[in-house]
């Protein structure tokens, strides 16, 4: 670009020569360099995307099912007075475990001891009369054979002897009754269990009957764990069994473990021993009962827990990490690595969750490689730099996390921390309805 020329006679002002001309020269130089900038080489294409992948290996995978459950005493008895009288002492500690035969209450014994003495006296009198009647009969019988006495005398002797025997039996019954009533004044626990609060205080007069409730004892070893199964879940698992997608243990003999509200698992496991034969008309579910050993009194009646059924298996199941499955506009999909090392999008049908993994019902085959980490950066046909991961293993995870529906995964994680009473009648996940007391149908 040429700078403007001026006549020799024209003199530029000092301000123009010092400020304007240098700036104008810089602008001209920048304009001259623009074509050179446009001729620079384009940046090199991006390299392969670094991802991790797992090879699909179908295998029989153990699964479990969790239910909100509530504990119940396997045997609960109300302790009542069987005789009338005053209550002298309470012999147990309220709320403590009482042993079988342990005295719990002591009633006033003195009136019953007096009644027993009187009955014993009556028995002695009747025994004496029986001895006299027996001696008379022994004397009269030989005389009657010799016709020394009349037949009437013999009949009277026989009658007196039988009456004396009957009187002795009646007196013996009175003695036994008095002795039983005396024994009833000491009220003992019929079995080992957890005692309740005393309903009657010392010095109170108690009567035999329904109004004489003193306390109650609940057996806690073993203890029952009750949960409910919904009709929808029963039908769902029945269909899966018919398709061979899931197998239950032989004879449907599930092992049941209990999870407390803090997430800890009890070491003792139980078995299903009863199933309600009909559905509840109020909730549409039916009751399943588990008997569980409780030697350390870790469970109390009325406690809300989680019951986990173990023993079911999904044959030839395909598991992939949950982070490998992406959500598309209409379906779930994964990135499958082809033989050329490039990614291809594959639509899959997902099933339940198992820990951090997802069951794939349809869309993947054995031996295929699926992108796990870095899947969000992958595009179709993009070259990849693959790092292999070990095959998915579910055995260890199965013991701590049940298979759940994808939409219920968050609820399943929270349920072990806080079991709610409302869920005890409508369980979200379950096997089929039990056909026998041992297992689901």
Beta fraction of the residues? Answer: 25-35%
- Main sheet properties: 9 strands, mixed
Q: What is the typical, i.e. mean, pLDDT?
A: 80
Helix and strand content put the structural class at alpha+beta
Named CATH topology of the largest domain: Elongation Factor Tu (Ef-tu), domain 3
Please compute the radius of gyration using only Cα atoms: 46 Å
Tell me the CATH architecture of the largest domain: Beta Barrel
Instruction: Write down how many β-strands occur, each being a DSSP E stretch of 2 or more residues.
Output: 23
Kindly state the percentage of residues in helix.
Answer: 25-40%
CATH class of the largest domain: Mainly Beta
Q: Helical stretch count?
A: 6
Assembly state: single chain
Total number of distinct structural domains: 3
Instruction: Spell out the CATH superfamily of the largest domain.
Output: Efflux pump adaptor protein, beta barrel domain
Unreliable residue stretches? 8-12, 394-401, 405-441
What overall form do the CA principal axes indicate? elongated
Query: Termini distance?
Result: 95 Å
What series of H and E elements makes up the topology? HEEEEEHHEEEEHEEEEEEEEEEEHEHEE
What does this structure look like?
Keywords: Signal. Residues 222-309 form the Multidrug resistance protein MdtA-like beta-barrel domain. Belongs to the membrane fusion protein (MFP) (TC 8.A.1) family. GO terms for molecular function: transmembrane transporter activity. One of its GO terms (biological process) is response to antibiotic. The chain is of the alpha+beta class. The chain folds into three domains: 47-74 and 222-441, Efflux pump adaptor protein, beta barrel domain (Elongation Factor Tu (Ef-tu), domain 3, Beta Barrel), CATH 2.40.30.170; 82-106 and 186-211, Beta Barrel (OB fold (Dihydrolipoamide Acetyltransferase, E2P)), CATH 2.40.50; 109-184, Orthogonal Bundle (Helix Hairpins). Helices cover 27% and strands 33% of the residues. The chain contains six helices and 23 strands. The strands form four sheets. Strands 1, 14, 15, 16, 17, 18, 19, 20 and 21 form a nine-stranded mixed β-sheet that branches. Strands 2-9-12-11-10-13 form a six-stranded antiparallel β-barrel. The protein starts with 13 loop residues before the first helix and ends with a strand.
